[in-house]
Structures are given as structure tokens and as C-alpha cells.
TrEMBL record:
Keyword Metal-binding appears in the UniProt entry: yes
Record organism: Vreelandella olivaria
Record's keyword annotation contains Lyase: yes
Name listed for the protein in its UniProt record: 2,4-dihydroxyhept-2-ene-1,7-dioic acid aldolase
Domain HpcH/HpaI aldolase/citrate lyase residue range list: 20-243
Keywords: Lyase, Metal-binding
Entry-linked Pfam families: HpcH_HpaI (PF03328)
Catalytic activity: D-glyceraldehyde + pyruvate = 2-dehydro-3-deoxy-L-galactonate
């Protein structure tokens, strides 16, 4: 068998616009529901959702029959964790808080076998190789892997040229919540200074030929970022969708104090 096609990477290369959903419930059951609804991609959040390696694996297995492409976000930049995520079959990784070209290069190495990197060989023990059923996985794996680095801090914005120029970085994802907090505007990603930083990231990534994604659950923000050239935008968060739906439903029957609208996600 061949290495499974990474449809997310393929769509990026075709410059297709992709709408995504954050999956934060950390269960295969909930993430499968998201995958069944038509989003082009979904983010299995290993950074902030209560995920473990087995729960991420269960979600990858649950969404495999659907056309929604899974992206897995790691909690940190540890190459040992990256190895495990790749071994369970994650093909597209999002890595938080990348702040230098050196960090970006180290992440690329973590995804590559020697001599191009430091990834250890899982061989027949791991799902990535379909337990050794994939032909020539060791030489072909990198073709199907997609590395997304998050730029979401003032330092990352300063270093965005070096980060986006790094060979092997496939795409950049902007974290507006962390960026706005880091810049001193907590809960206000639409502050003009934050927006200027976001535009700088988009421009610089495009100059380097790298596609850009962003989280934008507010529709007006998502449409604006699309016009600015963002190619993959997470326009929903499953947890928020449930909560908003629940509030709206109970609100039709009981009077409750209105909640302050939030952009902090
Ligand atoms: O900084 C951001 O924005 C992100 O990276 C997303 C957040 O981690 C999170 O708030 C998504 O719910």
C-alpha cells in the first residue's frame, strides 16, 4: 500500500480555500460528529484540550473515513512528542509558539528521518506505516507530512521572515488570542496594532510562498482574513458551538442574563 494521501497538504498546494473547525472535546465520538458535517479540516487540539496520545489516536481513527482532513496540534515542540504524533499517523502537525528560524528548523528535523533529521524509526509497530504495510515509508514519509508553525507572539512576529523562510515549513498559522495577549491587548485581537501584526505575518509568509491559516470564529473576522489571503481558516470551535446552541435553546424558555460576547475563544 502507498502512504495515505495527505489531502490537507494537497489542497494547500492547489491553493484551495479551506474552512476548518477546532475540535476540543478530546473524544473520537465528538470529533467524528464534526467530521461528518462538511468542514474541510479540523484541529485536534493537543495544546489546550484535555487530550492524550491515545485520545488523539482515537480521533484520527474516527475521522479517517470522512473527507475532513485532521490537523493535530501538539502541546509543545518536544521532538519526542512529535515522533509519537507522527507514529500514530498524524500527517499534518501544528506546533504552537514558534519564535525563531532555529526553532522552525528544529521542528522540520523532528519530522524527518536521518540524515535529514532526527525522527526515530517506529517501523512495524506504528500506525503511520500501517504496521509495515506501506511501501518504502522511510523514504516517502516526508512527502505526505505537512508542518504548520504557529506565529502568535511579538517575538514570533519579529522573527517571521526567518520562520517562514525555513525549508520544510509548509504553512503558518496565526494565533490571534495569544498574539493579542502577548501584545498587551488581552481579549482584543481586532485592536489595530494586533491587526497590523497579523497583516505583517500574512504578507511575509506569502512573500516566502507559504500559505497562512488563522482561527476566526467571528464571521466578519473570517471574511476579512480570507480577503487578506488566509487560505485555511478555523471558523468554528465545537465546544463553543455546543455552548452557544445550548444557551440559545434554554434562552427561548428561560430568561437569563445575556453573556458578554467574547473574541478570546
Ligand atoms: O492564540 C490563539 O488564538 C490560538 O492558538 C488558539 C487558542 O489556543 C485557543 O483559544 C483556541 O480555542
Amino acid at each position: 500500500m502507498q502512504v495515505p494521501t495527505n489531502t490537507f497538504k494537497q489542497a494547500l498546494a492547489q491553493q484551495a480555500s479551506m474552512w476548518g473547525c477546532w475540535a476540543g472535546f478530546a473524544t473520537g465520538y465528538a470529533t467524528e460528529i464534526v467530521a461528518s458535517t462538511g468542514f474541510d479540516w479540523l484541529l485536534i487540539d493537543g495544546e489546550h484540550a484535555p487530550n492524550t496520545l491515545p485520545s488523539i489516536l482515537a480521533q484520527l481513527q474516527a475521522v479517517a473515513p470522512y473527507s475532513t482532513a485532521p490537523v493535530v496540534r501538539s502541546v509543545n515542540q518536544d521532538p519526542a512528542l512529535i515522533k509519537q504524533l507522527l507514529d500514530i499517523g498524524a500527517q499534518t502537525l501544528m506546533i504552537p509558539m514558534v519564535e525563531s528560524g532555529d526553532q522552525a528548523a528544529a521542528l522540520v528535523r523532528a519530522t524527518r528521518y536521518p540524515p535529514h533529521g532526527i525522527r526515530g524509526v517506529g517501523g512495524g509497530v506504528v500506525r503511520a506505516t500501517r504496521w509495515d504495510g506501506v511501501d518504502d515509508y522511510l523514504n516517502k514519509a516526508h512527502e505526505s507530512l505537512c508542518l504548520i508553525v504557529q506565529v502568535e507572539s511579538p517575538k514570533g512576529v519579529d522573527q517571521v521572515e526567518a520562520i517562514t523562510a525555513t525549508e520544510g515549513v509548509d504553512a503558518v498559522f496565526i494565533g490571534p488570542a495569544d498574539l493579542s495577549v502577548g501584545m498587551g491587548y488581552p481579549g482584543n485581537p481586532t485592536h489595530p496594532n494586533v491587526q497590523r501584526a497579523i497583516e505583517k505575518i500574512i504578507r511575509t509568509a506569502h512573500d516566502a510562498g507559504k500559505p497562512v491559516g488563522i482561527l476566526a470564529p467571528v464571521e466578519g473576522d473570517a471574511r476579512r482574513y480570507q480577503k487578506l489571503g488566509c487560505q485555511f481558516i478555523a471558523v468554528g470551535i465545537d465546544i463553543s458551538l455546543l455552548r452557544q446552541g445550548a444557551l440559545a435553546t434554554i434562552g427561548r424558555y428561560k430568561e437569563q442574563p445575556a453573556e458578554r460576547p467574547s473574541r478570546t475563544y
